[in-house]
Amino acid sequence: MSITSFHPPARILMGPGPSDVNPRILEAMSRPTIGHLDPVFIAMMDEMKTLLQYAFQTKNELTFPVSAPGSAGMEICFVNLLEPGDKVIICQNGVFGGRMKENAERCGAIPVLVEDTWGAAVDPNKLEETLKSHPDTKVVAFVHAETSTGACSDAKTLVEIARRHGCLTIVDTVTSLGGSPVKVDEWGIDAIYSGSQKCLSCTPGLSPVSFNERAIERIRARQTKVQSWFLDLSLVMGYWGGDGKRAYHHTAPINALYGLHEALVVLQEEGLENAWERHQRNHQALRAGIEAMGLQLAVKEKERLPQLNAITIPAGVDDAAVRARLLQEYGLEIGAGLGEMAGKLWRVGLMGYGSNPRNVLIFLGALETVLHDLGASIESGVAVRAARAAW
Fold this sequence. Notes:
Order of helices and strands: EHHEHEHEHEEEHEHEEHHHHEHEEEHH
Number of strands: 14
CATH topology of the largest domain: Aspartate Aminotransferase, domain 2
Structural class: alpha/beta
CATH superfamily of the largest domain: Type I PLP-dependent aspartate aminotransferase-like (Major domain)
Helix content: 40-55%
Strand order of the largest sheet: 2-10-9-8-5-3-4
Largest sheet: 7 strands, mixed
Number of domains: 2
Strand content: 5-15%
Radius of gyration: 21 Å
């Protein structure tokens, strides 16, 4: 065999995730590995909980990172809060609402879908009407920031409706945490999950979660065992709970947790509100450049995510050819459309450390050049100037 060390090329990650990783986080992950029950590591775990409480804007004691990607964060919410026969209303306006449905079915629960157009926010009125038709519903689940379309739903209003009907809520904030306002306690969210690789600018592989007392009471009242041993909160919290003492549950991804700790320190230093404003400012510059070229964003202005920009592909343009040239010639990655949006839009991320003027200008200049070369009907030589004017 002649396999040698793997050295990946440098990329500018402007897809739906992962995002560019802050060099501070890469440095943190290179620090010496210590034991996952080492007193020094346990002290860092306590700091991590405090930092996550700040990021989520919550005082929930049960706040910690699951040792797996955001999909496991989703699953830990569903398997702990749902039992066989429970009815759950799932709001679907993109791919990830569909994954919620899959999780519910595997728990033996009965999912009821509230479907909205892909690329639009969840309609609160539809949720209200569905809850009236299904008064025995136990849980309402929805995606705050739908990564597949770039649409942001009104989480505060949706949670208010669910609580009024006596339901717990499960909220996906994989793409929104750190990039858009997320206020767990103020909005009354019961269970929430996110991911480390988007607006937190860490590497993939960890899923921050938080559960309030209402959710914990539901878990304590379960009549059946949680179907997943690894994700059973009553076991996991033996490791993440307590005052300094930890019961062995699994070997934590130690160096990855160093990285998340550093990512959350960076977020704390910038300040949540400042991070939200930075994402919005760079989004507006990107939008100005896109529209100056004659292209359109696919989501209505009031429902757009600043960190995930869905750009409608102009007629006659080869989606894959554009993405391939951006990657090969500029080392720049953007995302394709998913599901029914495949071939219809590009998903351009401005997340965390990657939400900066440099990335906006490089992307606009590269996209304009590639589209011009391919004979697309666009305005040339205007995008970068328009973005600068927006700032």
